[in-house]
Amino acid sequence: MDASELVEALVAGNRRALARSITHVEADSETGREVLRQVYPRTGRAQTVGITGSAGAGKSTLVGALAREQRKRGRTVGIVAVDPSSPFSHGAILGDRIRMQDLTSDPGVFLRSMASRGNFGGLSETATGAIDLMDAAGFDVVLVETVGAGQDEVEVATAAQTTVLVANPGAGDEIQSMKAGLMEVAQIMVVNKADLAGADTAVAQLKALLAIANLDSWIPPILKTVARANEGIGEVVDAIDGHQEHVRSEEHADSERRRHVRGQIIALARAALHREALEAAERSGALEILVDSVAARERDPRSAALELLDALRRSWSSSSDLGA
Amino acid sequence: MSQASADAATSDTDERPIRVLIAKPGLDGHDRGAKVVARSLRDAGMEVVYTGIRQTPQMIAEAALQEDVQVIGLSILSGAHLGLFPRVIEELKSRGVDDVLLFAGGIIPDDDVVEVKRIGFKGVFGPGTDTRDIIDFVREHAPRRT
What distances in angstroms separate CA B134 from CA A317, B72, B131, one per listed residue? Predict the structure, then answer.
């Protein structure tokens, strides 16, 4: 199938066309890019939700519980579940289906596992694409789950309209580390495993941090859940609905939409730039010369980085077909 | 970053990782073998979707469709392979999933291997198989996607 046939089929609800389109987007193939171009005008209907938090916070379990609750409310659900690739072999074990067994035989649910593949920014390109494809395929809700360890993962979560940050009781240092940036990207905070000691302390810490965060018109609610026991899940879905209503309201729709797509464009440009720069640096051989010189302590790394950047700028301006 | 790892990263973007589904159909709960195979394939640079135990043929076929894997490996120790494997193939066919490489592992008596291969499993790997043989098999036969 070519791009137009894939788009036609996936918009008509063909699950195999959706799956194959995501494969093309993951491979960053010409077909994949064309599918995304054609599909974009047909997106914007779905409620898109990013779920992030550190490993072991209970994200997969929470995503499963949220999906079940959404199904109870009569909505269809697409899920993108991201697991890390091994930095050594580049392989990955994608195990989210284990925790969503019951959902995998529900025709109203489509679950796609994705490996982070460790290429800078590539994940946000792929995940943003997968969200758009599921949106265009007609899913009412699209949930994206990532391990929120780094910039890439946060960007993936923020590729969705509503970002949910998952924390745990007793993770004091972890909450401290969230001060920088994460607080600002999350529209809903969830303290999961709230049956453990320290849940109220965690909520209080998050509240204290919110007080010093840069908030605009939306105040992020802080909710307690025990995802494993399905406690507090309805409240999270209500909060997501509340935020979606907020961003789609007449008063905020325009500014929220602009804020959202601005973030997307910057993230995607950053990813493309990073990849291009790395490829050009490797091709030119300049990188290796600088490595030799810094390793011998003839230059400092910062100067070498700026020299590399200069070399890249020169090569880009001298040959316009370099990136082809 | 060393030259070697830079090269690895470059070749990795040129050559997309092979996506494999490892599933356990039926009711036996012994998944050691399936996990060993999953890890070996992961360590060989593949992306392995692992479903866990007690999968119905419908669940396996639906997972293969949604994940768009190139390869499906089924592990079974209950003896129900001749009952379950044809149903997995039926479910795949009914969904139009006709371009995947199938292999099987677990306890499959020699007498049944012929039948398992006849219905579409290109490889059957019993106890004691060197995981390198499975890796080589998958690399050689996995269909290309893009």
Answer: 49, 12, 5
Whether residue A84 is found in the same domain as residue A207: yes
Residue range of the domain that includes A244? 44-250
- Identify the CA nearest to A21 among candidates A233, B45, A8: A8
Nearest CB to A101 within list B16, B46, B52: B52
Enter the ipTM.
Answer: 0.86
Q: What is the CATH number that goes with domain B18-141? A: 3.40.50.280
Strands (E), chain A: 47-52, 77-83, 92-94, 109-115, 141-145, 162-167, 188-191, 222-224
| Chain B residues within 8 Å of chain A (Cβ atoms) | 3, 6, 8-10, 12-13, 16-17, 19, 38-39, 41-52, 54, 56, 58-59, 62-63, 65-68, 95-97, 145-146
B39:A15 CB<8 A:
no
A27-63: pLDDT as tens digits: 889 999 999 999 999 999 999 999 988 778 888 899 9
Residue among B9, B43, B66 whose CB faces A110 most closely: B66
pTM for the complete prediction? 0.87
Of B3, B48, B59, the CB nearest to A92: B48
Residue A290, in any domain of the structure: no
Query: Among A250, A270, A292, where does a domain finish?
Result: A250
- Is residue A3 in some structural domain? yes
Q: How far from the centroid of its chain's Cα atoms is residue A138's Cα?
A: 20
With respect to residue A266, please indicate whether it lies within any of the assigned structural domains: no
CB within 8 Å: A90 and B12:
yes
| Structure confidence by residue, pLDDT tens digits, A81-108 | 988 888 888 899 998 898 888 888 899 9
Q: Is residue A164 part of a domain?
A: yes
Residues across chain B: 146
Same domain, A54 and A149: yes
Instruction: Tell me if B68 and A27 make a contact (CB, 8 A cut-off).
Output: no
Q: Domains in chain A: how many in total? A: 2
